[in-house]
Automatic annotation (TrEMBL):
Pfam families (UniProt xref): Rhodanese (PF00581)
This protein's record includes keyword Transcription regulation: no
Keywords associated with the record: Transferase
Keyword Transferase belongs to the record: yes
Transmembrane segments annotated in the record for this chain: none
Biological source species: Nostocoides japonicum T1-X7
PROSITE patterns noted in UniProt: RHODANESE_3
SMART domains in the cross-refs: RHOD
Protein name, entry field: Rhodanese-related sulfurtransferase
Length: 114
């Protein structure tokens, strides 16, 4: 369920996302490499303005995630101003990991959220 508040960007809980959700991950490269959702699209927050073409082309609301929700909330606020249909993932990748959802890593180590 998506929540709407005049003071905060729309949010979605991890429990409301399917395990195979396509999400926008705005964390830094080392965080991404350590562990991310299997179908996530990686665009670090600082690169977002120049990489809008990398966002999913969908009619669905795109969940946006970071480690705990702060950076993704800023990304969501900005993307809403640009006309995108997005929602912040409450509690970020920490909540994804705690919910037992699948993580994949870019290296040899076991996937984890850092």
């Amino acid at each position: 369920m998506t929540d709407f508040s005049p003071d905060a960007p729309p949010t979605v809980r991890v429990s409301d996302l399917p395990d195979d959700a396509v999400i926008l991950d705005v964390r830094e490269q080392d965080e991404w490499d350590a562990g991310h959702a299997p179908r996530a699209i990686h665009v670090p927050l600082a690169e977002l303005p120049s990489r809008l073409d990398d966002l999913p082309d969908t009619d669905e609301t795109v969940p946006v995630v970071c480690r705990g929700g702060g950076r993704s909330a800023r990304a969501v606020s900005w993307l809403l101003q640009q006309g995108f249909d997005v929602a912040n993932v409450a509690d970020g990748m920490k909540a994804w990991e705690q919910a037992g959802k699948q993580l994949v890593a870019s290296g040899e180590e076991s996937p984890r959220v850092i």
